[in-house]
Design brief:
Two copies of one chain form a homodimer. Chain A has 218 residues and is of the alpha+beta class. Chain A has helices spanning 14-26, 47-52, 71-81, 92-109, 115-122, 129-152, 168-180, 191-201, 204-207; strands spanning 5-9, 31-34, 60-63, 66-69. The mean pLDDT of chain A is 96.
Chain lengths: 218, 218
């Protein structure tokens, strides 16, 4: 019982992508339940799933009879119950630096660009796809620009966002880079982010977590 | 040196409000630097502050020569360097539950409603104040509704969001309740949240962290 993990996932969800990377890094192979965010008016709104995750969002991890929502809460949990390899570095300030970088994506870029927010801009607010793309690009440029500055200017940046092992910061960065390519962001302005993304994809944990590698991919 | 904390704060910022509560709970009296988000085109965009926080957002905590942005990263840091009283409960699942609740606010309600997002809706998108208020209310209702369901349905909810001591979940909830009152949210639909908010304000750590108690309040 306690050694089985179940992940409710959707291939295109970048929050689920994060958790898939974290599980791969930890060497955990979960049982998957697929929640299609577009079919049947959004399977995340089905009553059975709403009982698992009252926010009606993916991902949700179920372990040992407990359901956990919110990708960052899931990843901190995984790091506590299966500490090796760690997703956070040693040292309180180093951990704060990694969490700050992760939250730039998880609190300030991704939430304003997720499916339900973009849908609200389209309807009821009536914006065109061009306006929606400009919105996305605006927040991505701001957030990734700040990350580039933070990473390029710090001696603590290594092969990855913090030193030479992947952390929560890389796990949040990589799916956001994929999202950025859906908008008009000029990623050439962020050479440090591109370099780190490339280093991440050399690890199977990142490469195999990509949307198009998932069983529910279309 | 190591025992001095400096907080860059703005009285109306709910992310700064969270950190002020956390510092009060920990018994830490920081040196304050006030960053007025509306004056001079936004003091957070001044070059000197952008060096402290490349995201040009408040709050930032400076400790021992290190600057930390992102309120959740700051609070996790405080909990590591000054563990008593704890902001997270014992037990990995309990901590995951508290973090999930905190992130409902910090990742899914607050980011879509902060000053810069509302300003973008006003200009360039040209929405009226009524439309902006409807936007705010929509996301607040969704997020607080999920929190009410999660809290009302759990035996782990106590006087506070998790048991009988305040945690990160309460610290995120309380400022969000203040923000909710700026919109059209009917808080009577969320009796558990109202009860917990009231319990929080009985603690000076919460009451004294409110916007109107700050030296920079207007």
């Amino acid at each position: 019982m306690a050694d089985r993990f179940t992940l409710y996932s959707y291939f295109r969800s970048s929050a689920a992508f994060r958790v898939r990377i974290a599980l791969n890094l930890k060497g955990i192979v979960p049982d998957y339940r697929f929640v299609h965010l577009l079919k049947e008016g959004g399977q995340q709104h089905a009553a059975a799933y709403a009982r698992v995750n009252p926010q009606e969002l993916v991902p949700t991890l179920v372990h040992d009879g407990h359901a956990i929502g919110q990708s960052l809460a899931i990843m901190e949990y995984l790091d506590e119950v299966k500490p090796a390899p760690p997703l956070l570095p040693q040292g309180a300030f180093a951990r704060a630096r990694v969490r700050q970088l992760a939250y730039v994506v998880a609190c300030d870029i991704h939430p304003v660009n997720n499916l339900r927010v973009l849908n609200y801009l389209r309807k009821p607010l009536g914006h065109s796809q061009d306006e929606v793309t400009d919105w996305m690009t605006h927040w991505i440029d701001l957030g990734l620009g700040a990350m580039e500055t933070m990473l390029a200017g710090s001696p603590e940046t290594g092969r990855f966002c913090h030193g030479d092992a992947p952390t929560l910061a890389d796990i949040c960065l990589v799916p956001q880079m994929t999202n950025a390519r859906r908008g008009k962001t000029n990623l050439d302005l962020f050479p440090t982010l591109l370099r780190i993304e490339k280093a991440c994809y050399e690890l199977p944990a990142f490469a195999e977590a990509q949307a198009d590698k998932q069983p529910d991919a279309e």
